[in-house]
Design a protein that fits this description.
Length: about 290
């Protein structure tokens, strides 16, 4: 089967957690004998920020770590869908794509008489936090939506954005996250996550920063988009900051600390409860 996937980035996971799941799913497709084409926009904000802050070396390292995975960069103004979708059996279009591209792919499927199955893949909270943005997506020619939680699926059904929707939870890539043990620790607590528009600032203070400070634990934080006041809070609590960490190095970091913790963003807790995000799955897979 030929599977074509349109995602924001395969190569970069800089502030782009969807890359974790994409890499795992694409790897499994390939290992099962399917042909996989992955398209990502040239100069997307994730890859652009990654190269701007770390240079080209992370791209080279990604290619060495994931030899089966390759993506094709496109310019939305010149993208030839006839060529990109030639021979496709299944097409997956992620939610973090330009609405114009989402519409064009749907129209292409309609014009070709439904030559392939077409699904919209949503792994974000915008359907409940920014519904005016999601209304821009024309899914009229899609077979349906793959939503990463039941509540999100119900939003699509209730608002009639799509005529069918299914739940497809995120999961850990067990090619990367597999059982490992370490008896030599260099710290007590590690937190791996982005600051993220203050969506969990209070929770990070309550469940990470203040306990580490009061218990005098050895802790380290990895992630991006930490404003200066957040870095100041970490420093005041004696927490070291490691910056961006490629996801394929996370198992190695897990092994250096006694515990990790997960602090979900507030929209998921308040508006989409019960939707498990990928980081807890990765931690569980690493210890199982």
């Amino acid at each position: 089967m030929k599977i074509v996937m349109f995602y924001h980035s395969l190569v970069s996971d800089w502030n782009h957690g969807n890359a974790h799941f994409l890499r795992g799913v694409a790897t499994e497709f390939i290992k099962r004998g399917h042909a996989v084409d992955i398209h990502e926009p040239e100069n997307g904000w994730s890859i652009s920020n990654l190269i701007a802050t770390h240079g080209p070396e992370p791209v080279r390292e990604f290619r060495a770590r994931f030899p089966l995975l390759r993506s094709k960069s496109y310019n939305i103004g010149t993208l030839d869908l006839n060529r990109a979708l030639e021979g496709a059996d299944l097409v997956l279009v992620h939610e973090w794509n330009d609405p114009a591209l989402v519409r064009r792919i749907g129209e292409h499927r309609s014009k070709t008489g439904g030559a392939y199955h077409l699904f919209f893949h949503d792994t974000h909270h915008r359907a409940v936090t920014a519904p005016q943005q999601m209304c821009q997506y024309d899914l009229s020619h899609y077979d349906g939506v793959l939503a990463y939680g039941d509540l999100l699926r119900q939003v699509y059904e209730k608002r009639r954005w799509a005529w069918r929707a299914w739940t497809w939870h995120e999961a850990a890539d067990t090619n990367v996250f597999c059982m490992s043990r370490n008896c030599h620790f260099e710290g007590d607590v590690v937190w791996i996550g982005n600051w993220g528009d203050d969506e969990r600032a209070a929770e990070l203070r309550e469940f990470l920063i203040e306990p580490v400070k009061s218990l005098r634990l050895r802790a380290k934080v990895f992630g991006v988009r930490y404003p200066q006041h957040a870095l100041d809070m970490l420093r005041d609590a004696g927490i070291s900051y490691g910056g961006w960490l490629p996801n394929y190095r996370v198992p190695e970091i897990f092994g250096r600390f006694r515990i990790t913790l997960h602090v979900p963003r507030r929209p998921y807790v308040d508006l989409l409860p019960g939707i498990p995000t990928i980081r807890p799955f990765e931690a569980i897979a690493w210890t199982s």
